[in-house]
Amino acid sequence: MRTLRHLPTGLALLLALAACGQSEDAGSSPLPDPVGSWSVESLTTGGRTLHAPAAARVDLKQDDATGNYGCNGFTAKVVPEGSSALTVTPGATTNMACENQEFETAFAQLFKGRLTIDRGPDRLTLKTADGSTIALTSQPPAPDAPLAATEWTVDSLVDGATVSSVPAEAAGKARFTLTTDGTASGSLGCNRFSAKATVDGPTVTFGPLTTTRMACEGPAGEVERTLTALFGSGPLTWKIQGQNLTLTAPDGKGLTAKGATAAE
After folding, report:
1. Mind listing the pLDDT tens digit for each residue in 38-47?
2. In this structure, how many other beta carbons lie within 10 angstroms of the beta carbon of residue 110?
3. Distance CA 173, CA 159 (A)
């Protein structure tokens, strides 16, 4: 049997390079396409690392992106430069007051302009011109909270394209829970309530509300009147992302709420 040392020098070199390339290909994982759904792990900026809330994510397409800063949703235009960089132009965003406001503000500041891409087998790192980074992973995010058996605290009210945080004086007072046997109960911001709640696929319909009868003034009273009208307006489309619930009526009015399980 002939060995490499008995082959012509040029042929031996070609065979050695081919064998090396085959070995490297066999042992490496394919690099991910930047286009896809990514969970945000952390931000590094100004010498600090900020860990992401569970809902923070980016869904990259060929020419645009949607996502969540951790609480507020956003859109953006994207211009790719192959797989090595992309330029992001921020678009629309909701404007709720959120628990992780520092992270949200930093994420919004970093996810714009020209970002270079560093890829790994299941992750992307987006780097700004000043060296700050957004670490993304393709690993699945934490599962969404269930609609039932979760206590939902209302944190904003929606009217079409306008999203307004619950007034500070009423924050944390409007909350409700749906049960698997078809009931809902909680607080409208001042009075307690209970009602039938029928879930039909992507919609939930509240029956007539039974409430206590305290006189409610100020911001808590305004929130209560808004929620009473919303719950009585017919089928509401529900959507959950992470620990965030959105209920939307056909006329565009609605709410967003933060979830916590009974154990929490």
Report:
1. 999 999 999 8
2. 21
3. 20
**d(C-alpha 49, C-alpha 39), whole Å:** 16
3-state SS record for 126-149: EECCCCCEEEEECCCCCCCCCCEC
Sequential DSSP letters for 203-255? EEEE-PPEE------HHHHHHHHHHHHHHTSS-EEEEEETTEEEEE-TTSEEE
Tokens of 237: 């489309």
The rounded distance, in Å, linking the Cα atoms of 250 and 234 is: 9
Domains of the chain: 36-137 (2.40.128.270), 150-261 (2.40.128.270)
pLDDT tens digits along 125-142: 999 999 999 999 987 666
- Both tokens of 205, joined, read 């319909």
Query: Which tokens is 153 given?
Result: 């605290």
Give the tokens for residue 171.
């924050």
Q: Check residue 48 and give its pLDDT.
A: 92
